[in-house]
Amino acid sequence: MSGQIHGAVSGIAQTGTAATNIAQSIDGHRQRATAQADALSGAWEGQAKVSFDQAFDNWVTGVQRVVASLTELGENVTFASRTYEQQDQDSASGFAGLTSH
């Protein structure tokens, strides 16, 4: 049983790491897009610039929410996997103590 739980916990831990890595990747793309948008925005004037800036700001806000959610998910899943792993180890130790008496 312990091996089965360990395998599941390992998969959970990988999911937490993946969520964190995806969040970091998305944030990197956001940073590059922001730099490019800032460079373009300096050359624009008028209503097109205002409309673009508003749309881009909305996009950035959405991306930041996604990144924050993925980061939180990664942290929570990693915490859960560590908790399950500790419980599995505690249970295994408890059973080992029963069989040694």
Automatic annotation (TrEMBL):
Coiled coil: none annotated. Signal peptide: none annotated. InterPro entries: ESAT-6-like_sf (IPR036689), T7SS_ESAT-6-like (IPR010310). Belongs to the WXG100 family. This is ESAT-6-like protein. Pfam families: WXG100. It comes from Crossiella cryophila. NCBIfam families: WXG100_ESAT6.
